[in-house]
Amino acid sequence: MNYHQYHPIDVVNGPGTRCTLFVSGCVHQCRGCYNQSTWRLDSGLPFTLALENQIIADLQDTAIPRQGLSLSGGDPLHPQNLSAVKRLVQRINCECPGKDIWLWTGYCLNELSLEQWKIVGEISVLIDGRFIQELRDPSLIWRGSSNQDIHVLR
Ligand code: SF4
């Protein structure tokens, strides 16, 4: 997996103070996409074990408590991102108790494959659906268009 940006302290993408990772790779090609530079899987930088360890350490940092991790992109549920994302979310649930995981995907809940569901089963909140420009609503929190839903999973 590649990624575009990692923010160790973020107060915009989800509730509270968080870590946020923007991964590479998205097949949805939404018109008006805010982040077209992330569409290609080979864009950005390799997501290394060192960065994975850094995310875990940041979530464990008691000097600047984070509520959890936000995963966005790109699409963290792109089929080629699944193994790396799965390992990351499993590590967080194991090594960072009490931290939540929010994930943004262009897939709708009813389109997910079994492998994608295995990740959804590990996270706290899923925001699903493509961005539809005609349904864009700046008053919405944590989503760009009104077709997208916030699913609180646990
Ligand atoms: S799902 Fe998100 S990243 Fe992918 S094309 Fe749509 S708006 Fe852009």
UniProtKB/TrEMBL annotation:
This is Anaerobic ribonucleoside-triphosphate reductase-activating protein. Coiled coil: none annotated. Keywords: 4Fe-4S, Iron, Iron-sulfur, Metal-binding, Oxidoreductase, S-adenosyl-L-methionine. Belongs to the organic radical-activating enzymes family. It catalyses: glycyl-[protein] + reduced [flavodoxin] + S-adenosyl-L-methionine = glycin-2-yl radical-[protein] + semiquinone [flavodoxin] + 5'-deoxyadenosine + L-methionine + H(+). The keyword Protease does not apply. It is an enzyme of class 1 (oxidoreductase). InterPro entries: Aldolase_TIM, NrdG, Organic_radical-activating, Radical_activat_CS, rSAM, rSAM_sf. Its cofactor is [4Fe-4S] cluster. Its EC number is 1.97.1.-. One of its GO terms (molecular function) is ribonucleoside-diphosphate reductase activity, thioredoxin disulfide as acceptor. Activation of anaerobic ribonucleoside-triphosphate reductase under anaerobic conditions by generation of an organic free radical, using S-adenosylmethionine and reduced flavodoxin as cosubstrates to produce 5'-deoxy-adenosine.
